[in-house]
Design goal:
Distance between the termini: 62 Å
Largest sheet: none
Mean pLDDT: 88
Low-confidence stretches: none
Structural class: mainly alpha
Strand content: under 5%
Radius of gyration: 21 Å
Shape: elongated
Number of domains: 1
Length: 133
């Protein structure tokens, strides 16, 4: 049997192993994924601040003001997520904890989209205003 023929079997084996995970392992994985995204976004908070500072040095246009507001909204979104997130208690039923973690993953991913969009649009404005900024 060639490796190409064995590939579907390998896929079934991997899927089967994932099925064997305990509820605790699934929950731990979901928590780790969530916190990894949090950490990734936290590492970009300084970038939001720096871009806001740079935008204060460009001519005060409506567009620059909107980009500063978008950066501030992304910052506020992260702060709000951190304020409202509470790790589910160990006594929380598995299904309930997993549903909560999935909802929180969706929320933190939405914050990430907001951050990326505000960063990208701020950079466009800064590039358009010239290399001195």
């Amino acid at each position: 049997m060639g490796w190409r023929q064995a590939l579907p079997l390998l896929g079934l084996l991997v899927a089967g192993c994932l099925q064997l995970q305990s509820d605790e392992e699934k929950r731990a994985f979901a928590e780790q994924k969530l916190m990894a995204r949090h950490d990734e976004l936290m590492a970009r908070m300084d970038e939001l601040y720096q871009l806001r500072q740079q935008l204060t040095k460009v001519p005060d246009t409506v567009l620059a003001g909107r980009r500063r507001q978008a950066l501030q909204a992304a910052d506020a979104g992260m702060m709000q997520w951190m304020h409202q997130y509470h790790r589910p208690a160990d006594t929380t039923r598995h299904e309930r904890a997993m549903a909560y973690l999935a909802a929180q993953q969706h929320r933190i991913d939405s914050v990430g989209v907001l951050m990326q969009q505000s960063i990208d649009s701020a950079r466009v404005v800064l590039r358009a205003t010239g290399p001195t900024h």
